[in-house]
Write a structure and sequence with these properties.
This protein is α/β, with parallel strands linked by helices. The chain contains 15 helices and 12 strands. InterPro entries: DprA, DprA_WH, DrpA_SLOG, WH-like_DNA-bd_sf.
Length: 339
């Protein structure tokens, strides 16, 4: 088994109809590697492998990285969702810090644009990566705010990463990559945006993020699809209150009525989720330092920590419990995060 073999087979499986992220993870769990699983289950991939080889060549020419679900570089939070993408196409660099999604309608008010920019800039200045969808309106303002805050931002596309949509945001997409962020997609190179691809990408927007902030949304906005995924994934949902007479705020006001957390100030995010707040330097006891450094890079599951640290299960369990008790880390489901 080689990393290239695992990548090639993962890419081939992503092309296979009826084979999704859950099936992939079950194969990985049962056999320990994708190559072994494909061999033991006798999965026929002749045509898909040919397609995968061509795709790898295209990606190499374009400077696009393809990250398989079995890779340590695959975002831990995204791996936990119901149907994680088997592969992620990445132009730029995947974030290593915590993420919050800032989303809303394409058609929005000046109030919505200003608020999205301000919230994203605050998060960016606080060391949080801002995730959005590169659409006109709220999404664009969120990406611009994150860049103004000198931080990272990720645009999740409903197309291939080489097909920038809308075309008017090509320069914005270029800036996102140049300033250390990324364009991300689960769709093969050359895929055009469609009514089917946009809703699918929304689960990745929320899946990458600890929380979703809906700034402004109409009653039937696509942002509501992101909220549905966020709730399914156990993410915290914030909504910015709007004018009750404004059609741009009907969706967000309805979310508030249904239980979303009102966002009256960007600081409200940290009040609700204090573990996201930028950490001040603290003295970490020597026995915790290895695990602490690993978790500083990104949130991780127990299995991933065991693999990267090489510790015995019993020792690792005891150290993690101690770190939780001392407030150094917290556990969110099966994922550990630095406080």
């Amino acid at each position: 088994m080689t990393l290239m073999e695992e990548l090639l087979l993962s890419l081939a499986l992503s092309f296979k109809k009826g084979f999704g992220g859950r099936s992939y993870l079950k194969l990985l769990e049962k056999f320990g590697s994708i190559s072994e699983g494909v061999k033991e289950e006798a999965i026929e991939l002749d045509e898909e492998l040919k397609e995968a080889e061509k795709e790898l060549l295209k990606a190499e020419k374009l400077g696009v990285e393809i990250v398989p679900l079995c890779s340590d570089r695959y975002p831990s939070l995204l791996k936990e969702i119901q149907q994680p993408p088997i592969v992620l196409y990445v132009a730029g660099k995947l974030p290593q810090n915590s993420c919050v999604a800032v989303v809303g309608s394409r058609r929005c008010s000046d109030y919505g644009r200003r608020t999205a920019f301000r919230v994203a800039k605050f998060l960016s200045e606080s060391g949080i990566c801002v995730v959005s969808g590169l659409a006109y309106g709220i999404d664009s303002s969120a990406h611009k705010g994150a860049l103004a805050g000198k931080g990272k931002t990720v645009a999740v596309l409903g197309s291939g990463v080489d097909v920038i949509h809308p075309r008017g945001n090509r320069e914005l997409a270029k800036r996102i990559v140049e300033e250390g962020g990324a364009l991300v997609s689960e769709f093969p190179l050359g895929t055009l945006p469609s009514k089917e691809t946009f809703p699918r990408r929304n689960r990745i927007v929320s899946g990458l993020s600890h929380a979703v902030v809906v700034v402004e949304a109409r009653e039937r906005s696509g942002a509501n699809i992101t909220v549905s995924y966020a709730l399914e994934q156990g993410r915290t949902v914030f909504a910015v209150p709007g004018n009750v007479d404004s059609p741009f705020s009907r969706g967000t006001n309805r979310l508030l009525k249904e239980g979303a957390i009102p966002l009256l100030s960007p600081e409200d995010i940290f009040e609700e989720l204090p573990f996201l707040k930028r950490r001040t330097r603290r003295e970490i006891p020597g026995k915790f330092k290895e695990l602490y450094q690993l978790l500083l890079s990104e949130p991780m599951t127990f299995d991933k920590l065991a693999e990267l640290s090489g510790m015995e299960i019993t020792e690792l369990s005891m150290l993690l419990v101690e770190m939780e008790m001392e407030g150094i880390i917290r556990r969110d489901g099966s994922v550990y995060t630095v406080c």
